[in-house]
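Subgroup meeting minutes
Present: P.N., E.W., G.H.
Scribe: E.W.

1. P.N. recapped why we're keeping a running log of single-chain structure predictions: easier to compare across weeks, and new members can see raw inputs and outputs side by side.
2. G.H. added today's entry (168 aa).
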Amino acid sequence: AIGHLAPDAALAALTAGGGLVAARSASAGVRVGDGIADLGTAARTATLAEDLAVPVPPVGIEPSLSDQIARAEQHLSRLHHSVTNDAMLARLRSAAIDGRPLHETELNFLRHEMKEAELMDTGMGWEEAHAIAGQTHPTYTNYHPEVIEQFSDRFGIKWREYWGIELQ
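Output recorded in log:
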């Protein structure tokens, strides 16, 4: 089950290399004849398996790039349509399909939209969420220079200056 470690698998992992990691006191024992004997492998295994059957918190797993893109698209669909956002989403989808690493602007765009979505999901308004999300990346770095150049009428002079794009 999710959040649980199967005792057999856990025991195998812990005993790999011959070293059994016991979760209980080594002083526990049973009387055998005139002396005290160790609990024995079977008893230690049962005790360890018992301890390992306790639920463990699930490991934080990052959503896949495709999942993050879908989340960003869902979030952006509740805002005014923007061709610049469409262009960035297209770049992200292309990167996911091609398996290429994301450019810093693509990472920043995704980080920005994910943060903005998270905040708006709690009831925060767009203006405040957008301002906070803008703090997750340096100013002017969440749109790729090619997108800025392609849609130069949508970006101010500071964006073009930051990336060294001359107005045509």
